[in-house]
Design brief:
Blueprint lengths: L5 E7 L9 E5 L9 E7 L6 E6 L2 E5 L9 E8 L4
Antiparallel strand pairs: 1-6, 2-5, 3-6, 4-5
Length: 82
């Protein structure tokens, strides 16, 4: 049995910058390709989206300019079956 690679972490809302507020996720160990899925949830009600998906990470977009301080959680998992 070989499991699928999963990466996850959280970031505080105060780490988001720009217009709209965004955060660059950078993996410690890159995926081998961009065939992975991302789930983003946060303690603040936002319509989260991602962009610039690469083997080394992706950008979380809050789709808002309203500042927030609560945590945002992300998970990235390699696509496929195990």
């Amino acid at each position: 049995y070989v499991g699928l690679t999963t990466k996850s972490d959280s970031v505080m809302g105060t780490s988001f910058t720009g217009t709209p507020l965004q955060y660059q996720v950078t993996f410690i160990t890159p995926f081998t390709d961009t065939s992975y899925s991302v789930c983003v949830t946060g303690e603040d009600p936002r319509t989260w989206s991602i962009s610039s998906k690469a083997t080394t990470g992706f950008i979380i977009n809050s789709n808002s300019t309203l500042a927030f301080t609560n945590s945002v959680y992300w998970q990235a998992i390699k696509n496929g079956e195990a």
